[in-house]
Specification:
The chain is an alpha/beta fold. It contains 15 helices and 24 strands. It starts with a strand and ends with a helix.
């Protein structure tokens, strides 16, 4: 598949199948026990008055299988387990039989389980006869169980339903392979943060279809945009991404707040080493943008090129520039970090020369990760996941490595098959072979702000964007990523400013 050539050496993969989720920032897992109990009792009472059949809740609760799109990294697995406990606690407060709750990362027999489709056969075989709904949610999705039951009751469970909060592209975009170019707004796809549901008849149909028609695309780029010939998404207003404390939340079955996680003090500036991939032909137009925007946020930054220029300065790694891939350059950066940087520097970030990034926010995010674990963090894509492939971090949005991950990688002797091999994909293949899962964070972005639905970005505090073409990159940086935004505006004001641009 052709890949669009990126700046300092990364590529943007045009999508045939189109990513999901998840790093998932901080959100309180539960309300105080007494408040939660009172709220549930009130909702149950209201529901009983409406239907006159209190037993209906029991039956329907047992018919829902909750699937949390979790990850195996210790930070994420704990968040998913907290959500699982919250779901079960709500069910227990109702005094009913506990529902089934599944965590994606525990389904380790499926390397591509996060893409959901490989699990359809198992869902159909295990739950096709005794369940009505598969409900998917992210680690930070918050669920009002009674309200969810009330919402699903509106839909005939014997029919094929695909339910969620609808997103759409206002303009055709490369991350969705310019799908529906004439009018991209016609295709609606779910915001995973709000949760989404498939009725069992649709699950069974998909399982049968995938048996006879295996996935045709090698690449998984934006899972929430994947599409087929089945039922279109039915928008459900009760599936929300409003904050728990919002006045709108009272009407919501689900809520979500993707605030930046704070797990302690932000990591120190000196704990992050930033490597910028560039080449001589971009020294004059791209490097000045870096210096006008995020460079001052980084205490340790070096520019790696095919030409040493003291005025920047750039470092020639002895790897010739290539027209595609840049794997040789990336592995040379990894070697240099391990052998020449201070052994006390726990984190390495590799970005392209046209990546816009907030080091300020990254420092907060990394407070949630243990640098003693092998961490490989960024925006997740997939290659050949239906046929034994692997996941990888797409380079344009930034690739974050713990020192431990780099040590294990280089000790394995896994390497580029050529200097111009796609670096991000080779890294994904190497880490997969080592049994080290990549960690996905939706706050890293391979494309520009305009390439994502406004409503999707509205519940994010982004860490990076990529590409300078057809935008003013300095303006985009100060609109979306500059540190002063946290100091000057509330999240609500940020959202209003962004929507007005």
């Amino acid at each position: 598949m052709p890949r669009e050539r990126g700046g300092g050496g990364c590529w943007l993969l045009p999508a045939l199948l189109l990513l999901p989720p998840l790093c998932a920032p901080a959100l309180a897992i539960s309300v105080a026990a007494e408040d939660a109990k009172e709220q549930i009792e009130r909702l149950v009472s209201q529901e009983s008055e409406k239907s006159g059949k209190s037993n209906k809740i029991n039956i329907e609760l047992q018919e829902i299988v909750f699937v949390i799109q979790s990850q195996s990294n210790s930070f994420h697995s704990k968040r998913a387990e907290d959500l699982e406990r919250n779901i079960l606690k709500q069910a227990e407060e109702l005094g009913k039989e506990l529902p089934r709750v599944l965590l994606i990362h525990q389904m380790d027999r499926h390397d591509g389980a996060w893409t959901i489709l490989p699990l359809m056969h198992d869902f159909s075989a295990s739950y096709g006869r005794n369940s009505s709904w598969i409900f998917f949610c992210e680690e930070d999705t918050r669920i009002q169980i009674v309200k969810l039951l009330e919402t699903l009751r509106r839909f005939d469970k014997s029919k094929e339903w695909f339910l969620g909060k609808a997103l759409y592209d206002e303009e055709s975009t490369i991350i969705h392979h310019y799908a529906f170019a004439e009018n991209p707004t016609v295709f609606k796809f779910p915001d995973f943060a709000a949760g989404w549901a498939l009725s069992i008849p649709l699950v069974n149909k998909l399982a049968n279809k995938l048996k006879s028609e295996p996935l045709k695309s090698d690449f998984t780029i934006d899972l929430k945009h994947e599409k087929g010939n089945g039922p279109h998404l039915t928008p459900v207003p009760e599936f929300c991404t409003d904050d728990l404390n919002s006045y709108k939340a009272v009407h919501c079955a689900t809520m979500f707040s993707n605030f930046l996680p704070v797990c302690g003090d932000p990591v120190k500036k000196e704990d992050i080493f930033v490597a910028v991939k560039t080449c001589q032909k971009f020294h004059r137009d791209r490097i000045p943008i870096v210096k006008q925007t995020w460079e001052s946020e980084a205490a340790l930054v070096e520019y790696y090129s095919d030409y040493a220029e003291t005025s920047i300065p750039t470092i020639d790694l002895g790897v010739p520039n290539t027209e595609r891939g840049h794997c040789g350059k990336t592995f040379a950066i990894l070697e240099r970090f391990l052998n020449q940087s201070s052994s006390k520097t726990p984190w390495l970030v590799i970005v392209d020369d046209d990546t816009l990034i907030s080091i300020f926010r990254l420092r907060k995010l990394l407070s949630c990760y243990d640098p003693n674990e092998p961490v490989f963090l960024g925006e997740r894509y997939g290659y050949g996941l239906g046929t034994g492939g692997y996941s990888y971090i797409t380079g344009g949005g930034g690739m974050v490595f713990s020192r431990e991950a780099i040590q294990k990688l280089l000790a394995s002797k896994c390497q580029c098959y050529s200097n111009d091999a796609p670096d991000d994909m080779v890294l994904g293949m190497c880490f997969s072979g080592l049994g080290i899962p990549i960690t996905h964070c939706p706050l890293f972005h391979q494309a520009r702000p305009m390439d994502y639905p406004k409503d999707y970005l509205a519940h994010q505090i982004p860490i990076s964007f990529h590409k300078h073409w057809n935008i003013n990159p300095v303006k985009e940086y100060f609109t979306w990523l500059a540190p002063k935004m946290e100091d000057s505006f509330t999240e609500k004001k940020q959202r209003r400013i962004r929507e007005d641009l």
